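Shipment paperwork, digital attachment
Item: protein structure file
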Amino acid sequence: MKRGVIDTLRRAADNTIANWPLILIRFGETLLFGMLAVVTVIAALVPIFVSVGIEITKIDSPDDIEQAMAALMSRWVLLLWIFAAFTLLLMLFIAVHGFVEAGSARVYVDAERIAGPAPIGARSRFRVFSMDRWLTGAKDGWWTAFWIYNLAWGAAGLILLIPLVPTIVGMLIFHEQPQIALATGCVGLLVSILVTIVVGIVTNMWVNRALNEWAVRHYGTRAALAAGWQAIRSDLGRHVLVMLAILVVAMAGSSFFASFSFFAAFGEAFGDSRGIFNLFTIPVRVFASLLSSAFSAAMSAWYLASYAGLAAE
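Attachment content:
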């Protein structure tokens, strides 16, 4: 039985709220990624910058950035080291995210099955979370999820090259005619941005559905990607409408939390040149940032749970 979009979103919201510890796990993942990024920058980039005479605190203009890049380009071995460090960091991020997503998908699918197909019922019927259930799903599916992300986003990256390559070639061809080269670059950049938005949304839908195909049918990577793509094509309307509904709510929430960052501007507007008002609003802005991260984690969980409902029908 195919449910309507509203019913799908409502069931997914009940599923997400009933299994709220998954939101905390996602929030912890976000904090972990932030700490890993800071540690990587300190451990990998700072020693390299010091070795080539770059002082980060003194980079405050385009000319300084240009000089820093020139210094790095003269040491191409260091550039390879930076590329390798960030590639390893990215692979670690994908592996950890795949671990979290695989465990979450398993819990949401199990909750859909245990709750049954009844359109109306208590939210508690979806409450199936346990750390053992989540860890079992995460251990079983993290490797599949890792390759689902790599293959899907790798294919998306190749598609993104379609508008970028002609743009770069066109700018090189007309490099002696600045006006034509500039126009080619602007048009190419605009097309690339539009293609990036569309491809990013479609790929995110594909990955979410593929993860749930693994959770429902225990498929491997290729089978899950193929089944996920086929499911989206055969039921495009519901998948798109569910995604758009959650996207609208997520954007509205993000705009609300982002408004707290404008507090500092009030102090400058009233002549607070010493930044006293900005200092007093730091706790508020930090708290708002944490709430924003938690809200984003909840929206991602709702999105995954929605596609779990579609896959488990």
